[in-house]
Amino acid sequence: MRRDPAALTRSTFDVAVVGGGIHGICALYEAARRGLSACLVERADFVGETSSNSLKIVHGGLRYLQHGDLRRMRESIRERARLLRLAPHLVRPLPFVLPTYGHGLRSREVLRTALLLNDLIGYDRSAGVAPDRRIPPGRVIGRDEVCRLIPDVDRKGLTGGAIWYDCQVENTERLALAYLHAAVAAGAVCCNYAACTGLLLREGEVRGLEVEDRVTGEGFGIRARTVVNAAGPWVDRLLQGIPGARNRTRFHPSKAMNLVTRRLFGDHAIAFTVPIAFTDRDALINKGTRMFFVVPWGPYSLIGTRHLPFDGEQEDFRITEADVELFLGEVNEAIPSVRLSAGDVLGILGGMLPETPRAERGEVQLVKHSRLYDHAREGAKGLVSIVGVKWTTSGRVAVRAVDLVEARLRPGAPHRRPPEGPLPGGEIEHVGRFQAEAATRPATGVTAAAMNHLVATYGTGFREVLAYVRRDPALGRQLAPGSPVIAAEVMHGVEREMAQHLSDVVLRRTALAAGGHPGRQALRRCADLMGSTLGWTPDRHEAEVDATDAALRATTTAPSS
């Protein structure tokens, strides 16, 4: 997978996708695997915005029971199983625990019924899934077990707890890149740092895109019969040139925030409620509180997701110190034993999610269903826009979007969806056995910790990374103390995954900054490797280090070396 902007100009594509977040990437993948000629352009780096800033959970929609939304539950359950089949090395079951109190909505009786309904509705939750990736049934547990799993849990009125299983994506960026690799293998073309500056329209029909290569500054056109607008928070920007579409807002942005902290609990995700005055207007049963999760993530914990109002321009988005202090205060109030301070925050993951329009400032009410817009009646035949909501259902939304594209390209013909195999790296029958066997293979210059990390991160693709080490054993060295990431991953990101800037490698191609700032020395090591391949001048080298250092300092309170 190499960056080749010229390939975008050599032919007319069936579909051009704008936006390299997870919804755009899934749309490209779905189109390519159906045999459509497809391309994608992204203004910055792939999964560089909201798609990389999540709680890293693929959920089956247990909480949708309070809405009576069984259709959305079924969709989530099917997509969760699908991701377990596509990328078993990256997606794994994760147990969740919720303490129960009293005899009301949070009682053992109510939760036992909810878990039973969840298991019945998800009867096929492990269909086709590898044996050690199957989803176990939920169960209620006693008071003593809850106290063991959650030390210092509030014992007043505690009756026990509920355990259910959803899934964790260890590395969402690697999952998105696996989709991209699969799309390119099926014939698609993609390019980061290629900004769509406008639509090419003729007599009310889409004919392609105007694009600026942000690496060279050159402009060019892409010829396409249809366009999928998956620009996320910028989805309305692309529609400004369409008179019939420009006066309507489809994406009302809100802030979404997750925090990376020191490890707080064991191997279970902990659900807790915060007494925020909140009314879910769509719920049949309204609890009047927000639910948050403390999720184990390697040696760290993820806490989220906190949603806050946002009324600025998309380019001005940021999570402020006041936002973090507010959330920490709520967490400490709900779980006093954690005693979190700003110094415990190793990373701040933030992004913009669509909310329903607010009549006045208040608690955010997120859009619950992803939305598709066919702009044919607005003066742009062949243009489809996506406003996505969840990582879990991004693949299903892509199917619906490409169905609209096919209906435009092949009127009256049935949709063609070939059988779906694993994504690159996921060709594994038994994950635990594969990881154990692969990790025992000797690799010159690679530590056991680094080898385990490579296998868990790249699946069967770990051999491609090790090939760099075989050619140059120095590339087996780890880049920062405490991090298993090795130098070969930088080279792999540059030569095979289109990394153009130091931040692309540090933040998205590798897990080097998963626990916060890896230190300026580690940044320099990465820049040395990238610069030698991409021909950076000394000034460019320093500028890349400074820019990445600044980006990390803006999203972490951890000290750097």
In CATH, the architecture of the domain at 5-51 and 173-249 and 368-409 is: 3-Layer(bba) Sandwich
Q: What is the average of the pLDDT values?
A: 92
- Counting helices, strands and paired strands, the structural category is alpha/beta
Largest sheet: 9 strands, mixed
Number of helices: 14
Strand content: 15-25%
CATH class descriptor of the domain at 5-51 and 173-249 and 368-409: Alpha Beta
State the helicity in percent bands.
Answer: 25-40%
Distance between the termini: 34 Å
Structure report:
The chain is an alpha/beta fold and 561 residues long. Among the domains are: 5-51 and 173-249 and 368-409, FAD/NAD(P)-binding domain; 253-354, D-Amino Acid Oxidase, Chain A, domain 2; 431-554, Helicase, Ruva Protein, domain 3. The protein is built from 14 helices and 17 strands. The protein has helices at 22-33, 70-86, 108-121, 143-149, 172-185, 321-334, 394-409, 431-439, 448-458, 462-471, 487-496, 502-509, 520-534, 538-554; strands spanning 12-18, 38-41, 57-58, 91-101, 139-141, 158-169, 189-191, 194-202, 205-213, 219-229, 253-262, 269-274, 290-297, 300-309, 345-354, 371-374, 383-387. The strands form two sheets. Strands 3, 4, 5, 6, 11, 12, 13, 14 and 15 form a nine-stranded mixed β-sheet that branches. A hairpin with an 8-residue loop joins strand 16 (371-374) and strand 17 (383-387). Helix 11 packs across helix 12 (502-509) and helix 13 packs across helix 14 (538-554). The radius of gyration is 23 Å and the shape is globular. The two termini are 34 Å apart. The model has no long low-confidence stretch (mean pLDDT 92).
